[in-house]
Amino acid sequence: MKKFKKIAILLDQIGVNPVNAFFFLRGLPVYIYQLFKAICQSSGWAIRIFPILTDKYKEAGSINSQYFIQDLYFASIIFKIKPIRHVDIGSRIDGFISHLLVFMEVDILDIRPIKSGIKGLNFRQVDIMSKHGLSTIDKYPSVSCLHTIEHFGLGRYGDGFNLQGWKAGLENILGLVEYSGFFYLSTPIGRRRIEFNAHRVFDPKELIEYTVSSGFKLVSFEFLDDANIIKDNLEADFSEIIYGCGFFVFQKI
Predict the structure, then answer these.
(1) What is the DSSP letter of 89?
(2) Residue 16: helix, strand or coil by DSSP?
């Protein structure tokens, strides 16, 4: 199943989606039948062909994805704390960031450009693996980086190649947190590896040790297992997890 998923992702990048193709062909006979009925019964409405044949086979929405769960998880924490200022590095704008914008302004840093006229969304283009340009950025009481650190240095998003890029990026992110401030981190966890150039999968204990050694304490740790069930056992055998997601909350001390 995992090999099929990788093949499907690869084909999708060149414009071939085998899953959509299957459901398109499955829905085509019904579409043709209904099209002729629509033409016969149009009652003066102009009929133009615009086939959408795959939506009927999908669920009403995706509420069991790592992104959906993590975005709600961290947004609810930040809503309760209500920091004066918040900066995010690379997280999903149409999920987590949009949740935060409901109740606060958000500064975001990303290596890729974005055009935004959204009130309260302040963007700055930065390569977080480099210290260049970071000296002019203030420290924040609240900093987040969700499902992003796993990509640093793999070149997927136009960043420079550096297999240790996650350390350089994490070091710079931690430097943005003011004293007593909070840092919110999520990233894939499981059997430690690089799936080039998609992402890394971390051993969560390595991330905790690195961050704690940089002057932070671990406030909380929970994770999604392969079934997307939230658990909180730091002593779990993470080598048995294929592709989970760790939820970390740190505080600078």
Answers:
(1) E
(2) coil
- Backbone torsion region of residue 31, taken as left when φ is above 0, otherwise alpha when ψ lies between -120 and 50, otherwise beta: alpha
Name the 3-class secondary structure at 177. strand
Residue 238 CA to residue 226 CA, distance in Å, equals: 11
| Residue (of 238, 222, 90, 74) closest to 158 by Cα position | 90
Residue-wise pLDDT for 222-244, tens only, equals 999 999 999 999 999 999 999 99
The beta strands (E) that lie in 87-176 are given as 87-89, 106-110, 121-125, 140-146
37-74 pLDDT, tens digit each: 999 998 888 999 999 999 999 888 777 799 999 999 99
Phi first, then psi: give them for residue 161, nearest 5 degrees: -75, 125
Report DSSP state, residue 94: I
Residue 17 has φ and ψ, to the nearest 5°, of -115, 100
CATH superfamily of 66-252: Vaccinia Virus protein VP39 (3.40.50.150)
Domains of the chain by residue range:
2-57, 66-252
The pTM of this model reads: 0.90
First to last CA, the chain: 44
Residue 165 carries which side chain, given as an amino acid letter? G
